[in-house]
């Protein structure tokens, strides 16, 4: 290592060329590297969807979910098997374990599901797909008082115009039902013409679908033969023949059916301030740049030519959020760089500070050049990773630069000063980089999407640290080998200012720090006890819930959202009524607050909203209602308080599956999430209801949800004796009922780039009540018919709207949110476990329970990070043992690591923040700084002791010598993230906990390095000396006068007046040594 330092220092041209290559590589990469708001992380998740129209949830569970689960359960590599049975729909989701390739497991799942022979004939073919994250760039709103069909046509025109832009590839139209062409038949017409729906469907299919008729081979060439052609419009179906009479009359579809060319019979839509609206979601795919896509959309919106009364505007701009986040982060980085330059100039002078500060962009841009090779992008997380290491990356250069500065102060100059200063600290700097890299390494192996989201942080940190080592040992010494230009007034002035400041600092160290350290070393037990007490306080804060632990922090948005999910089968009008009631309760809340000017600027009501985080299907979409209140920027009430008030004004919606009022920038997950298990659905329902009642007894627990709470009315049909005697099977009756009420898909027609189903069914007038069901004609095997009421009994029962299963066990999910100002999730769970969950199996034999959702994710995250962190600490201990050659000093360095966590926790407590996933990342970074400071400090102590200094003096002098670089490290790290902590931007707030962890942890770690570690070092040496003297007491008579005298000197320096020698001569020699040592110590 020293040889390479000398070579680069003596060849500055090569060092400069290396620096230029790193800078240019970074600049070039910034133009080509992918840009996105958040990393496009793989979910490693597989989804399966199967439909069985009109089937009730328990039937779907039995006929669809259970067989599919059984088919895939034994496949190696699968875990976390979830399934939900809805009305007519089964949705399964499963995760792929670490170490397995998702595509390979997907193929095994697809083969297993395709081989199923037990699914009903009416069930759809199972859709098996890998679930992937979709990167939305923005959402635009098309608003106008138009019909559904007019909005649909205009939205499609806007979509096609946007897709014509080369920067845009994927756009989804939202807030409209699916297109449908319906041929509706009156029951009396079926009777008049002696037709059935099945007969009509067969006739339409025969006439509407083309048939290939082979190939005509002629001398001119082969001609493909085809009979018929595809229908191009719904109206063409009305001319199709159904039956030819003997006298030449033709019965056509138009004689029996009415055409409805429109949308499915479900109320899905959006209303912006009461006016119908349609949303278009624009996505980024592949290598597309988020800002380029956004720019193309903005240009179109600004120039769009629309009919009168129709507007097109941007509603949600994720690209603007990305731009704001990147702007805040770049601004924070530049401010931090400026602060670092000022601090370094104050300590080291402008010349030295300039070269040290230049190392920051060299390492940073070099790491940017490596991002494409690492498969990463420029996004919010990677940008903050650069800011996170901004204060750390300068540590190496500070240590090397300060060491060279010390050589200058001792009169050494030029190349000799650069080489001597760099070589003196090269070994601890190298090991410091290794230990910091090891501290970040656990983040590389976190499982799941959250782990993939964080993975860019350690990759950036490792790249920057490696390049920082290269810059500080190879490039920086070459620059520092050239003396500063003394004729430059600015440099000369900065040197004079630095000299005065360093003189003042030296005076402070000699007059304040050194006497303080001597005194603290004498009362080291008190110092150690004080730090131990702070550690216990930190543990108490975490255990009591005063500092909450969550995955992601709550960041308040500028909007309040009420979202309700109703059971499938809930009438659309009922959902519309609730939307109107939500608007009215919001208006009542606004009136009660007496705000100057409008508090609610915009209201967007969305009925039938899809959650589109990934390509997974959303079974709740038709039943989801969302009302968004866009609030005024200037207001005297927080969005969170608005959400609380709105919830209180509106009250609990009894028939909703879930209900949530939220003002968070990110989706709020339940703080309490419990799965109850029991094979009997009725018993499970009672358990869930009891748990729901228990949760309502807690103050501060709200928005309680029970997955079995919502019920669906279910019509149960059983054949009577007359029906069985008529030769009917229950399946025959069910098939005819499904054809009449759900309909028969007879064909599909093209509509732009989609295919629209053509449905044949009874008209609404003949299928809107239970009476119509009872009077439905059922065709018998002999060709006659009878009303259903004459053949079967019809009764109404209720059934759960959703039946959930986890790992092939039926479960009920009970969730709730917790107001941390009144209680904590930990306190609620502790009480539930003691008073209810512990005795669950006794009250309901066969019952079980488990934690799920966010609480489970937090527990698994802590387990993984704990194991990974422990392994990293063991690796760091091994590296330190290699460096120090003993066990005690590596243990001393490792002892300081938990106190970095103490500082981070105390900082969160003081600022009222929650500990998040990003807080853990910041804490890991703190570990690297703590290890580095103490590693260099102990290395200096050892160097001084090898030179002959006694322990106390070596410790105090080493602390004095390393005070300046440790202080510089602290100031540069803390001030480097301070702009981000103080940034008044919503987009940066969820990253603030990481910055707070780093700042708080490093501040506290500085006290640990300068106060606790010296006391611990002296204590450990005392213990070692004590046991060494104990051993000497029983030693044989080979001791000499010189060794006894030396032992006495050492004992005096350690204040241990315990003469171990019984021999009079040796005893006297020891006393003489003790007297001389005491004299030296007093001096």
- Unreliable stretches (pLDDT < 50, length at least 5) are none
Number of E strands: 30
Question: Cα-atom Rg, whole angstroms?
Answer: 38 Å
For the sheet with most strands, the description reads: 9 strands, antiparallel
Sheet-strand content, in percent, reads 15-25%
Instruction: Summarize the amount of helix as a percent range.
Output: 40-55%
Number of helices: 35
Quickly give the structural class.
alpha+beta
Distance between the termini: 41 Å
What would the principal axes of the Cα set say about the shape?
elongated
Looking at this structure, what is the CATH superfamily of the domain at 1-32 and 349-483? Multidrug efflux transporter AcrB transmembrane domain
* Mean pLDDT over the residues: 84
Stated plainly, the CATH topology of the domain at 1-32 and 349-483 is called Multidrug efflux transporter AcrB transmembrane fold
* Top-tier CATH class of the domain at 1-32 and 349-483: Mainly Alpha
Please identify, by name, the CATH architecture of the domain at 1-32 and 349-483. Up-down Bundle
A few lines on this structure:
The protein has 1083 residues and is an alpha+beta fold.
Defining key terms:
alpha+beta; 30 strands; 1083 residues; 35 helices; Alpha-Beta Plaits; Multidrug efflux transporter AcrB transmembrane fold
């Amino acid at each position: 290592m020293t040889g390479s330092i000398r070579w680069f220092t003596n060849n500055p041209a090569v060092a400069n060329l290396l620096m230029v290559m790193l800078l240019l590589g970074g600049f070039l990469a910034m133009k080509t590297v992918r840009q996105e708001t958040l990393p496009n992380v793989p979910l490693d998740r597989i989804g399966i969807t199967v439909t069985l129209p009109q089937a009730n949830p328990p039937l779907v569970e039995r006929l669809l979910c259970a067989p599919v689960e059984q088919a895939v359960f034994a496949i190696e590599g699968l875990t976390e098997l979830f399934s939900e049975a809805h009305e007519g729909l089964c949705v399964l989701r499963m995760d792929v374990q670490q170490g397995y390739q998702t595509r390979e497991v997907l193929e095994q799942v697809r083969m297993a599901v395709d081989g199923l022979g037990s699914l009903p004939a009416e069930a759809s073919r199972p859709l098996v797909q890998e679930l992937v994250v979709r990167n939305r760039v923005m959402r635009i709103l098309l608003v106008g008082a138009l019909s559904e069909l007019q909005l649909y046509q205009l939205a499609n025109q806007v979509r096609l115009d946007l897709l014509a832009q080369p920067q845009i590839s994927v756009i989804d139209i939202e807030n409209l039902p699916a297109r449908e062409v319906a041929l509706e038949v009156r029951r009396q017409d079926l009777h008049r013409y002696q037709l059935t729906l099945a007969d009509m469907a067969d006739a339409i299919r025969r006439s509407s679908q083309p048939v290939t008729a082979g190939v005509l081979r002629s001398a001119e060439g082969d001609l493909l033969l085809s009979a018929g052609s595809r229908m191009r419009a719904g109206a063409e179906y009305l001319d199709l023949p159904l039956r030819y009479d003997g006298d030449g009359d033709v019965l056509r579809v138009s004689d029996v059916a009415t055409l409805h060319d429109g949308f499915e019979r479900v109320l899905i839509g959006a209303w912006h301030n009461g006016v119908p609206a349609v949303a278009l979601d624009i996505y980024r795919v592949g290598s597309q740049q988020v800002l380029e896509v956004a720019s193309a959309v903005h240009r179109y919106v600004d120039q769009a030519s629309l009919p009168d009364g129709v507007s097109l505007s941007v509603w949600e701009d994720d690209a603007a959020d990305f731009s704001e986040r990147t702007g805040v982060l770049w601004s924070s980085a530049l401010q931090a760089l400026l602060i670092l330059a000022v601090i370094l100039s104050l300590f080291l002078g402008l010349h030295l500070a300039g070269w040290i500060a230049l190392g920051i962009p060299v390492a940073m841009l070099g790491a940017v050049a490596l991002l494409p090779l690492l498969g990463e992008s420029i996004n919010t997380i990677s940008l903050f990773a650069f800011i996170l290491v901004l204060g750390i990356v300068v540590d190496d250069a500070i240590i090397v630069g300060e060491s060279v500065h010390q050589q200058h102060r001792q009169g050494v100059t030029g190349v000799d000063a650069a080489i001597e200063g760099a070589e003196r600290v090269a070994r601890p700097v190298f090991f410091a980089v290794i230990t910091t890299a090891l501290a970040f390494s656990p983040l590389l192996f976190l499982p799941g999407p959250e782990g993939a989201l964080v993975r860019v942080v350690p990759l950036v940190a490792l790249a920057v640290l490696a390049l920082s080592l290269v810059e500080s040992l190879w490039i920086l010494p070459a620059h520092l080998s050239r003396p500063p230009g003394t004729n430059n007034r600015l440099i000369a002035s900065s040197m004079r200012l630095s000299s005065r400041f360093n003189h003042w600092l030296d005076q402070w160290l000699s007059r304040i720090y050194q006497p303080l350290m001597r005194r603290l070393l004498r009362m080291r037990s008190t110092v150690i006890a004080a730090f131990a007490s702070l550690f216990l306080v930190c543990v108490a804060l975490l255990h009591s819930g005063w500092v909450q632990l969550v995955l992601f922090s709550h960041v308040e948005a500028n909007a309040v959202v009420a979202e309700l999910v109703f059971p499938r089968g809930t009438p659309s009008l009922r959902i519309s009524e609730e939307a109107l009631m939500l608007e009215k309760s919001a208006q009542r809340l606004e009136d009660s607050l007496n705000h100057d000017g409008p508090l609610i600027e915009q209201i967007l009501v969305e009925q039938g909203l899809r959650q589109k985080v990934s390509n997974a299907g959303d079974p709740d979409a038709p039943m989801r209602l969302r009302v968004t209140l866009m609030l005024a920027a200037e207001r005297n009430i927080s969005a969170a308080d608005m959400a609380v008030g709105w919830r209180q004004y509106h009250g609990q919606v009894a028939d909703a599956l879930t209900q949530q009022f939220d003002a968070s920038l990110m989706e709020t997950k339940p703080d309490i999430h419990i799965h109850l298990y029991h094979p009997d659905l009725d018993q499970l329902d009672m358990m869930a209801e009891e748990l729901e009642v228990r949760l309502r007894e807690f103050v501060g627990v709200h928005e309680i949800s029970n997955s079995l709470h919502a019920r669906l009315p279910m019509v149960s049909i059983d054949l009577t004796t007359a029906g069985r005697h008529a030769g009917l099977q229950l399946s025959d009756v069910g098939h005819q009922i499904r054809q009449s009420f759900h309909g028969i898909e007879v064909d599909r027609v093209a509509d732009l780039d989609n295919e629209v189903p053509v449905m044949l069914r009874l008209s609404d007038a003949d299928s809107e009540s239970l009476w119509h069901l009872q009077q439905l004609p059922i065709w018998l095997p002999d060709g006659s018919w009878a009303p259903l009421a004459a053949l079967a009994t019809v009764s109404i029962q209720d059934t759960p709207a959703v039946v959930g299963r986890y790992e092939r066990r039926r479960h009920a999910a009970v969730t709730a949110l917790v107001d941390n100002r009144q209680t904590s999730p930990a306190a609620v769970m502790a009480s539930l476990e003691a008073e209810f969950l512990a005795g669950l199996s006794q009250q309901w034999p066969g019952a079980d329970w488990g934690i799920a959702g966010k609480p489970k994710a937090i527990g698994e995250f802590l387990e993984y990070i704990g194991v990974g962190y422990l392994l990293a600490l063991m690796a760091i201990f091994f590296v330190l043992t290699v460096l120090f050659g003993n066990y005690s000093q590596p243990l001393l360095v490792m002892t300081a690591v938990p106190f970095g966590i103490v500082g981070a926790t105390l900082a969160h407590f003081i600022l009222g923040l929650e500990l998040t996933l990003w807080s853990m990342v910041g804490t890991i970074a703190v570990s690297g700084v703590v290890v580095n400071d103490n590693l260099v400090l102990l290395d200096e102590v050892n160097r001084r002791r090898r030179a002959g200094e006694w322990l106390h003096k070596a410790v105090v002098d080493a602390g004095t010598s390393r005070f300046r670089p440790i202080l510089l490290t602290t100031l540069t790290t803390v001030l480097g993230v301070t702009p981000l902590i103080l940034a008044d931007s919503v987009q940066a707030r969820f990253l603030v906990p990481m910055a707070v962890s780093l700042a708080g942890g490093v501040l506290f770690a500085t006290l640990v390095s300068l106060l606790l570690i010296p006391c611990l070092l002296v204590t450990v040496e005392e213990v070692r000396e004590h046991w060494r003297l104990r051993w000497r007491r029983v030693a044989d008579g080979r001791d000499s006068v010189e060794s006894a005298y030396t032992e006495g000197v050492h004992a005096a320096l350690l204040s241990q007046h315990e003469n171990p020698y019984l021999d009079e001569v040796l005893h006297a020699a020891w006393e003489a040594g003790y007297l001389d040592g005491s004299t030296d110590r007093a001096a």
